């Protein structure tokens, strides 16, 4: 019997990979170059935020308004800085990630996508650096967004259009409450993963359909194939 197509969307940082702050350092350096100011006295919590939110937080702390021309300037130089940071970060896959991607990618009627706060260019640079870009058909990205909810909607719509499939079964997998909430608001199955800043018990407060310590959990594959 033919199974109903499933779209499984993954966050990147803290969910698939750990880069030990490479992305944040790259953003900080790009902002410093663009505004000719030192950001050493600023502090940003990046977990679950979009790149645009992170930049706006830096800028507000040095009393600079976030504008589209300034964002464009920052995002123009950010990718090359990110590539350098990734080369030097000793990054790694989080537990169970690679094995899960291989199993899901080979499953019938299962398609993998991205739902991340990273800008599109930055997201693909990270995925290509870790040699897993081939597993994903597309996604929703943080370009222009201060909220994850619409980028999940973008991911679903863009991939549906690309593949000519009207997905009625979609999962959102991530390591922060923002991932869970964005999935719930788009009527998706939600998987919370305790490999980032938030513990499993903290993630469970947001009522995901499943919360696990890592993607090594044996329930993950079965749940994503049968939700």
SSE map:
Elements: E1 6-10, E2 17-18, H1 22-35, H2 51-61, H3 68-87, E3 92-93, H4 97-106, E4 110-115, H5 120-129, E5 139-140, H6 148-163, E6 169-174, H7 177-184, E7 189-193, H8 200-204, E8 210-212, H9 218-226
Parallel strand pairs: 1-4, 1-6, 4-5, 6-7, 7-8
Antiparallel strand pairs: 2-3
Task: Please tell me about this protein's structure.
The protein has helices at residues 22-35, 51-61, 68-87, 97-106, 120-129, 148-163, 177-184, 200-204, 218-226, and strands at residues 6-10, 17-18, 92-93, 110-115, 139-140, 169-174, 189-193, 210-212. By secondary structure, it is of the alpha/beta class. It has a six-stranded parallel beta sheet, with helices on both faces. The protein contains nine helices and eight strands. 43% of the residues are buried. It is globular and about 55 Å long. Helix 1 packs across helix 2 (51-61).
Keywords:
45% helix; six-stranded parallel sheet; 14% strand; 8 strands; two-stranded antiparallel ribbon; 227 residues; alpha/beta
Q: Going across the major beta sheet, what is the strand order?
A: 5-4-1-6-7-8
Q: What's the total number of strands?
A: 8
Amino- and carboxy-terminal Cα gap: 17 Å
Share of helix, binned:
40-55%
Main sheet: strands, sense, barrel: 6 strands, parallel
Q: Segments where pLDDT lies below 50 for 5+ residues? A: none
What structural category do the secondary elements indicate? alpha/beta
Morphology call? globular
Q: In a few lines, what is going on in this structure?
A:
The chain is α/β, with parallel strands linked by helices and 227 residues long. The chain has helices at 22-35, 51-61, 68-87, 97-106, 120-129, 148-163, 177-184, 200-204, 218-226; strands at 6-10, 17-18, 92-93, 110-115, 139-140, 169-174, 189-193, 210-212. It is built from nine helices and eight strands.
């Amino acid at each position: 019997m033919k199974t109903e197509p499933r779209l499984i969307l993954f966050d990147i940082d803290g969910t698939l990979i750990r880069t030990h702050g490479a992305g944040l350092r790259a953003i900080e350096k790009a902002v410093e170059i663009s505004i000719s100011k030192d950001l050493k006295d600023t502090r940003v919590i990046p977990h679950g935020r979009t790149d645009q939110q992170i930049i706006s937080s830096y800028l507000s702390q040095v009393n600079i308004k976030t504008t589209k021309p300034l964002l464009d300037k920052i995002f123009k130089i950010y990718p090359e800085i990110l590539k350098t940071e990734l080369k030097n970060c000793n990054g790694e896959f989080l537990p169970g990630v690679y094995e899960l991607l291989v199993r899901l990618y080979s499953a019938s009627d299962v398609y993998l996508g991205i739902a991340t706060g990273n800008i599109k260019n930055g997201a693909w640079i990270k995925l290509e650096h870790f040699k897993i870009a081939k597993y994903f058909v597309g996604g929703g990205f943080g370009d222009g967004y201060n909220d994850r909810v619409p980028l999940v909607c973008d991911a679903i719509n863009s991939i549906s259009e690309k593949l000519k499939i009207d997905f009625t079964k979609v999962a959102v997998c991530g390591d922060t409450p923002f991932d869970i909430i964005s999935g719930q608001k788009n009527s998706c199955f939600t998987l919370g993963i305790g490999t980032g800043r938030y513990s499993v018990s903290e993630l469970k407060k947001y009522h995901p359909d499943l919360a696990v310590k890592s993607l090594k959990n044996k329930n993950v594959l079965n749940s994503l194939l049968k939700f």
